[in-house]
Specification:
This protein is mainly alpha-helical and 92 residues long. The protein contains four helices and no strands.
Length: 92
């Protein structure tokens, strides 16, 4: 595991623990001690989250880029290139 990934997971776990500590009075007021205990289940879930599989990157269809590459490979007909003025190649 790289150092940056370890640092990210450490910061994530620390933020979850700090949020849980700050929300303790609210959880106790809203749901009693059982809600407060259930809140602690968030920390093992945060610890297990790096083990979950990551979603595969979606590959988007690229028909336009393929068409542009095909058009770039085409050469102008000889009649058009011969008829273009020497100083104005954009007219070809």
């Amino acid at each position: 595991m790289s150092e940056t990934l370890l640092l990210q997971h450490t910061l994530l776990f620390s933020a979850a623990a700090l949020a849980l500590l700050l929300l303790r009075p609210l959880l106790r007021h809203l749901g009693g001690a059982s809600a407060q205990y259930l809140g602690w289940l968030a920390l093992p879930m945060v610890l297990a989250s790096p083990a979950l599989p990551r979603p595969a990157a979606a590959s988007l269809p690229v028909p336009y880029s393929v068409q542009f590459e095909a058009l770039a490979r085409l050469e102008a007909p000889q009649a058009l290139t011969a008829a273009a003025p020497a100083g104005r190649p954009w007219l070809a």
